[in-house]
Request: fold
Amino acid sequence: MTKKLLAIALGTAATIGMAHAAPPTFYAGGDIAGFKSKIEDKSGIAPDVSGSAKATSLRLRGGMHILDWLDAELHIVLPQDKEYSSAGGSNKVKTQVFGAFAKPNTNVGPVNLYGLVGFAQSKMEFGGGGGSETESGVAYGVGVQYPFTKNLSGSIDYVHYLKKSNFGGIGIDVTNSAISAGVLYTFK
Reply:
């Protein structure tokens, strides 16, 4: 009987909390991203083509403010073709990322501090006949957002999009991450 009453009380509290929540608001924006694809050759085949491709790219984001402390956010990092190693010739990679995140956040004065926790998919096209591989994994990050006006704000964040051993079964370990700065427009 006590468990039933507890379940009813929790259900009622959740319903009341949702009923009093503000309607969701949507936002969209863009960032300049310092994107890095770190590639470690674990194949054991010479030459060792380990290296890092560092590109300046555009990241598009959009989201929905669900609760006072929680947003849902999508990221698209547009691909850039960059060299990661010159061993045995020019080794290039073009990386594109799609990510979906829960974004818990809190206000500290006028600044909003946030975290990002979710999943991302990285599609990497390797030059020189290396082909294309796609992998998914857990992604996370942290950032800060500052409102300039009621609808416009700026943000800076770091996101770790992927860390994968034996990426695509081709004998390399891959780490994709980005440091980004940009603006968001909230539709109110």
Q: What stands out?
A: The mean pLDDT is 89.
